[in-house]
Amino acid sequence: MQPYEMTLTAAADAIRARRLSPVELADSVLERVEEVEPRLGAYVTVTAEHTRRTAREAEKDIAAGRHRGPLHGIPMGLKDLIDVAGVPTSASSRVRSDHRAQADSTVAARMSAAGAVLVGKTHTHEFAYGLTTPQTSNAWDRDRVAGGSSGGSAVAVAAGAATFALGTDTGGSIRVPAALNGVVGLKPTYGLVPRHGVTSLSWSLDHVGPVTRTVEDAGLVLDALAGHDPRDPASLTMPPADYRPTEGTDLTGLRIGVPRTWYFDHVDAEVEAAVRSAIDRLRSLGARLVDVEIPMTRYIQATQWGLMVPEATAYHESTLRTVPELYQADVRILLEAGELMPAGDYLRAQRSRTLMRQEWASMLREVDVIAAPTLPATAVQAGQETITWADGTVEGVSDAYVRLSAPANITGVPSLSVPVGHDTEGLPIGMQLLGRPLGERLLLRIGHAYEQTRPARELAPAV
């Protein structure tokens, strides 16, 4: 096994035991980047000189007994919405071509303090306003979409071009590409991870979270990310928590909610079969399955778009009027549409969210978590605009990809996407676990228990 193939947990253990040096790991990942990047396009910027310098510093610190923890010396990618001092934050847009961050974002500073080694900034759908990340190819099939908007982060991790990465999630933008590329994606509880220094899409829906190869890795990254920052008005004040999931597969006594509505409507048959098989695996580990009705389903998509569109337009108000030609057409149209939305519609979306949160809180008192597909379909062909379901219904690709992930953003509950297999074309399938606010430890425990019953996942072929 080459160092770039190692999970975060395995690499951290090897570094701590002096079986692997941060320099060896960084060199291996950078060589992998050179190998796969021409085909995949995961990165906007690769900071190779900075990567090697930081790895050498980590090696010296660890040799001197100053080991900072499991992220020390581990190569990471950061979505190009996340500010790093002195490095461009382009948001994959010509609008930001001259922007260079003056200071670290909170999450970048926390990763640096933990000793992580920046490999580069990963591509996003322009300003995170889309579900495909067209600059980037799927790690399993370069002719298919990577998913978005954190497509670069998911592809880099899936291909071994980063040991872990950070993304953002406004309507599924961590979980969508994670599911499409066969990696783990965690959208934490709203406010658990600060967003100061992160370019916003929709401030009441935005989250920052990890993209990793395993659930255990996600817990290690969340340990370093979570915590209050007064510069983010939504940031929660919470005591420190240990998110690394405990070993063991016994889920006796846990109640797993299986949706009767919404999550299995208009879902590809292979996706449904893989997810139901994974849910049965949870039952075999001792969990009890409970049928649940997802509340207010007729309002989910209208509420998601009713919140996101006007908030995004407000954020871009100045540049939309001064340099509209610099935006890609799909994003510019959405931003212009936001200027036509009446204030009453935005207020009704806020009211709907309040009611939806109440209904979800009531549902989550009856079960411990909900298990469902992350997405209704695997990765579509690049350029494909619609999906036709078995009953003849035609749905836009972006609408399909956001449909099952949006409820967690609207309500703010945590959601973890875990790979649960591949379809007959070899494309990954994801299952999401949704929990109560601040229920990340339980989600990670369940996801880790499931992973321990499965063979170790291999990296995507990528070449």
Mean pLDDT: 97
CATH superfamily of the domain at 3-251 and 397-452: Amidase signature (AS) domain
* Biggest beta sheet summary: 11 strands, mixed
**Distance separating the two termini:** 17 Å
Strand composition percent: 5-15%
Number of β-strand runs:
13
State the strand order across the main sheet. 1-3-2-4-6-5-12-13-9-7-8
Secondary-structure content class:
alpha/beta
Helix count from the secondary structure assignment: 15
CATH architecture tag of the domain at 3-251 and 397-452: Alpha-Beta Complex
The CATH class of the domain at 3-251 and 397-452:
Alpha Beta
Sequence stretches where pLDDT stays below 50 over 5 or more residues = none
* Named CATH topology of the domain at 3-251 and 397-452: Amidase signature (AS) enzymes
**How large, in whole angstroms, is the Cα Rg?**
20 Å
Helix fraction by DSSP (H/I, runs of at least 4): 25-40%
Oligomeric category: single chain
Shape: globular
What's the SSE pattern? HHEHEHEHEHEEHEHEHHHHEEEHHEEH
Enzyme class: ligase
Keywords: Ligase, Transferase
Protein name: Aspartyl-tRNA(Asn)/glutamyl-tRNA(Gln) amidotransferase subunit A
Pfam families: Amidase
